[in-house]
């Protein structure tokens, strides 16, 4: 059985990062990150452009945590946890299969510094050891070379290609799935 009780919220730490809950005071960063065209290019979700949009995103993240349906962390500067580089977490749980889908994004100012590879290790450790996952799955747009690099370097294996799996803004989108089993 998965342990989907996230109260108190599990703060995670790595060498350079602190991973904490996204709260309402983070609205400006949520707009900066979830409103950024480049960061959202391969994420089929509407961009958060206004304070209202950002509050909607934060409410969705908060409800996901309290209902045990998802858990997302703000990826912060460990020296200044008010500064958010990006957001990462388990965006869906599949309790029957002891599986979760992982998702992550950074503002482009923070790309190429190895932050997601660093954060993913802590998030996976929490997933396998605390949530008791057996399998983590990641789904990417096949054009998203940067995301594929992160997964392959982190020992995810290609599982399947789903063609025209979903439609977003009138475009039929393919998805590549990558998986990692608990060791
Ligand atoms: C995919 C992503 C999370 C990678 O995180 P990261 O912390 O930057 O990962 P890395 O530091 O390991 O960099 C990965 C690759 O990004 C590329 N990259 C780095 N900086 C870049 C930049 N400024 N512009 C374009 N590509 C860049 C590099 O090719 C790098 O690979 P390399 O190490 O072989 O040079 C990040 O690019 C991102 O947030 N993208 C937008 C959101 C997104 O697509 N999320 C995934 C949805 S499935």
How would you describe what is shown here?
This protein is an alpha+beta fold and 183 residues long. It has a domain at 12-134: Gcn5-related N-acetyltransferase (GNAT) (Aminopeptidase). It has 4 helices and 8 strands. It has helices spanning 27-34, 51-66, 115-131, 145-153, and strands spanning 12-13, 17-20, 71-77, 80-94, 99-106, 135-140, 157-168, 171-181. The protein has an 8-stranded mixed sheet, sandwiched between helices. The longest helix is centred in the last third of the chain and has 17 residues, at 115-131.
CATH architecture verdict of the domain at 12-134: 3-Layer(aba) Sandwich
Poorly predicted sequence stretches spanning 5 or more consecutive residues:
none
Shape: globular
* Beta-strand percent range: 35-45%
Q: How many DSSP-defined strands?
A: 8
Present as ligands are: coenzyme A
Topology at a glance:
Elements lengths: L11 E2 L3 E4 L6 H8 L16 H16 L4 E7 L2 E15 L4 E8 L8 H17 L3 E6 L4 H9 L3 E12 L2 E11 L2
Parallel strand pairs: 5-6
Antiparallel strand pairs: 1-2, 2-3, 3-4, 4-5, 6-8, 7-8
Helix pairs in contact: 1-2
The site of coenzyme A has 21 residues, from β5, α3 and α4.
What's the short story on this structure?
With 183 residues, this protein is of the alpha+beta class. The chain has four helices and eight strands; from the N terminus they run ββααβββαβαββ. It has helices at 27-34, 51-66, 115-131, 145-153; strands at 12-13, 17-20, 71-77, 80-94, 99-106, 135-140, 157-168, 171-181.
